[in-house]
Amino acid sequence: MSRGRGMDKSIKLFERASKHMVKGVNSPIRYFEPYPFFVKRARGCRVYDVDGNSYIDYCMGYGALLLGHAFKDVIDDVRAQLSKGSLYCMPTEHEVELTELLNRCIPCAETIRLVNTGMEATYHAIRIARAYTKRRKIIKFDGCYHGSHDYTLVKSYASVDEMLSSAMLEGVASNTIILPYNDIDAIKDAMQKIGDDVAAIIVEPVMANAGLIPPSNGFLETLSSVCREHGSLLIFDEVVTGFRLALGGAQEYYNIKPDIATFAKAMANGFAIACIAGRRDVMSMLAPEGRLYQGSTFAGNPVCVTAAIATIRYLMRHRSIYRLMEKRCNELVSMMSDMVRDNGIEARINSIASMLQIFFTSNEVRDYATAKLSNTTLFKSYFKELLKQGVFIPPSQFEVCFLSLAHDDTIIRSTGEKIGRVLSILARELSKRVEVTSRE
User: Fold this and answer.
1) Whether residue 302 is found in the same domain as residue 245
2) Domain end among 269, 286, 317
């Protein structure tokens, strides 16, 4: 259904929300001008708003809903658990089962600590690395996002830089070294100079918060080798890539084992759970075995643990879905590439597995600097026109589109047709602008 079908209820809800919520939303990525639509329900690959409009969803919980909205296997198990209680704050057999499953799936997962969110996981992963190495400095990459905490929000992504000076604790920035993603020479040079002071290198193995940017050949291998050389730890932030690129995440996909990894999002198909996984000697820094305190009331709660078990069990039984989703993603990218060319639009499309993003630029997009060269104004028009066609993608150029198992061949073809119509509209707009400019 098109966005023009009616938005009266969403408008009223946004007016109510704006009275008591910052800009009417609980996360900045949910806002877009002039107002977001408000969702009533979702199933499969579609969301339905309060006005009765439906949208093909390519946000999918920013990657969390790998199997689709309201996936039956997960929902049935969660419903059964709810009748037994939602929170115990005492150990359960389900926690043991989940960590055993994680150990089987994730190459680096000798020992695991369950937490609640990806941000919590990356924050404590860095604390563990500092405690283990007795060093303070960390290296991160320009454009990589690891949660909104001071350790990694330094020059993180998409227009947060100017806000940091007044909000960040003194001294944090000086211990965080920022390097360009995919620059092998830069990482070798930095580690040669300060490697013996670096506790950890933290990286999104596939950058997914500056748009989609895969690693260049040898980049992840270089991170692993320089960490071994200097006694630093390699942290893979797999909050997005975990269970999405492969059952074992990017470390399985690229055959590189980090010292620590963080998982969230697709781990429980939309339920709030995350984990820190890593080498046994490193993870033993955590209390009560070690002296580094980390605790949480809701960690390992039975509802989210049940959802994670159901999700991972399904993925273990149906490993072929990764090939299927990648095939469908490639088909959509192929259609988009043809349409971009046919309409004479300058654009690059990056994709991997079941993830993709379009950049309106003629340049190769290989890091945050090149991503920022893309035409974000044109991307906003692309987003708005797709919304009118009944397709919802993340509103920001610096996010990623995600497929789920529910995006079947029919949906992919329908999406391709809708994108084709949108690109034709954009091409006509660009042509008009050129004509106006030439007259002037």
Assistant:
1) yes
2) 317
pLDDT under 50: residue ranges of the chain: 1-4, 156-160, 162, 165
- The dihedral sign for the CA sequence 115, 116, 121, 124: negative
Q: Is 265 a catalytic residue?
A: yes
pLDDT in tens, 27-58: 999 999 999 999 999 999 999 999 999 999 99
Task: Give me the pLDDT at residue 171, please.
Answer: 66
Residue tagged active-site, from 265, 322, 368, 382: 265
For 365-414, the pLDDT digits (tens) are 999 999 999 999 999 999 999 999 999 999 999 999 999 999 999 999 99
**Is 145 a known active-site residue?**
yes
List the catalytic residue out of 145, 181, 253, 254.
145
Q: What is the pLDDT of residue 52?
A: 95
Residue 283 and residue 135 share a domain: yes
Q: Taking the model in full, what pTM does it have?
A: 0.94
Count of domains for the chain: 2
| CATH code for the domain of 80 | 3.40.640.10
Q: What is the pLDDT of residue 3?
A: 44
Indicate if 292 and 433 belong to the same structural domain. no
Q: What percent of the chain has pLDDT over 90?
A: 89
- Please tell me whether residues 53 and 202 are part of one structural domain: no
Pair 163, 298 in one domain: yes
Catalytic residue among 51, 57, 183, 237: 237
Q: How much is the pLDDT for 5?
A: 56
**Parent domain of 410:** 3-69+320-439
